């Protein structure tokens, strides 16, 4: 008779563990009449090596979910596991170390140091940690993101799209378990946004990266393998390889309150 492995048993060698597992995530703000349930029992599994977009109406909890998954905020209840590591049991110093070494971030603001060159900005996490950069991986990332000719330039000498590429390269250099993007194309024009989204798509397809992105833009979400829809702090649906039209229709339904919970 075949038995199932224990809940905490190692994954079989033929199966890759999920990049993220969230169970029963609950997060509230305020109290009494001002109490807001930002997350209300969210369960979510994100496979490794996939591009996932998180979407929902304003106030649906998507940014709160991203922050809890990335260890930037703590849920009131529930658990989060990233790359096999349980975040909810870590203290602040351990969380800081985990974010620095295993999680990448790309934000709407590029967050580059203006006095440093592109190369120095990309390698900054290693300089801060006192660690040596894997030059082979560094060259691979720089080549894939088309930055080889811009490494000596400072942020003021780069376009918005080039600055975001530098931010993506910096996030990828640590080989993170997950790269999180919080509206990463929010400050970019349409053409540059498409360029950055293609680069994120490339990081998944060619570098086997896991990308989780919060966005309000159906066009941006159209680059993802999976779209997670939120409403009122709960999962309201998951779309697999959806078209822009399908994403737009579901978002419209959520905004109108016609929520079909998955």
Q: Calculate Rg over CA atoms.
A: 19 Å
Assign a percent range to the helix content.
25-40%
What CATH architecture do you see?
3-Layer(aba) Sandwich
Structural class: alpha/beta
DSSP strand tally: 10
Task: Please summarize the sheet with the most strands.
Answer: 6 strands, mixed
Question: What strand order characterises the main sheet?
Answer: 6-7-8-3-9-10
Q: Just give the CATH class.
A: Alpha Beta
Q: Give me the CATH fold name.
A: Rossmann fold
InterPro entries: AAA+_ATPase, ABC_transporter-like_ATP-bd, ABC_transporter-like_CS, ABC_transpr_LolD-like, MacB-like_ATP-bd, P-loop_NTPase
Domain ABC transporter: 20-257
Keywords: ATP-binding, Nucleotide-binding, Transport
Protein name: ABC transporter ATP-binding protein
């Amino acid at each position: 008779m075949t038995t199932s492995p224990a809940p905490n048993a190692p994954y079989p060698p033929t199966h890759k563990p999920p990049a993220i597992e969230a169970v029963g995530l609950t997060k509230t703000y305020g109290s009494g009449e001002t109490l807001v349930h930002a997350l209300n029992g969210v369960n979510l599994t994100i496979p490794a090596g996939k591009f996932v977009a998180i979407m929902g109406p304003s106030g649906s909890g998507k940014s709160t979910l991203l922050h809890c998954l990335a260890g930037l905020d703590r849920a009131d209840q529930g658990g989060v596991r990233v790359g096999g590591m349980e975040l909810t049991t870590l203290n602040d110093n351990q969380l800081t170390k985990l974010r620095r070494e295993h999680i990448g971030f790309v934000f709407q603001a590029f967050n580059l140091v203006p006095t440093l060159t592109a190369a120095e900005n990309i390698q900054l996490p290693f300089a801060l940690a006192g660690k040596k950069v894997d030059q082979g991986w560094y060259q691979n990332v720089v080549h894939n993101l088309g930055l080889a000719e811009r490494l000596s330039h400072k942020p003021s000498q780069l376009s918005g799209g080039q600055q975001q590429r530098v931010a993506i390269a910096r996030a990828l250099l640590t080989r993170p378990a997950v790269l999180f993007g919080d509206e990463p194309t929010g400050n970019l024009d349409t053409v540059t946004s498409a360029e950055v989204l293609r680069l994120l798509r490339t990081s998944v397809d060619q570098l086997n990266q896991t990308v989780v992105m919060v966005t309000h833009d159906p066009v941006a979400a159209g680059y993802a393998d999976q779209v997670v829809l939120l409403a009122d702090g709960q999962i309201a649906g998951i779309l697999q390889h959806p078209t822009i039209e399908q994403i737009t229709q579901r978002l419209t339904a959520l905004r109108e309150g016609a929520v079909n919970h998955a």
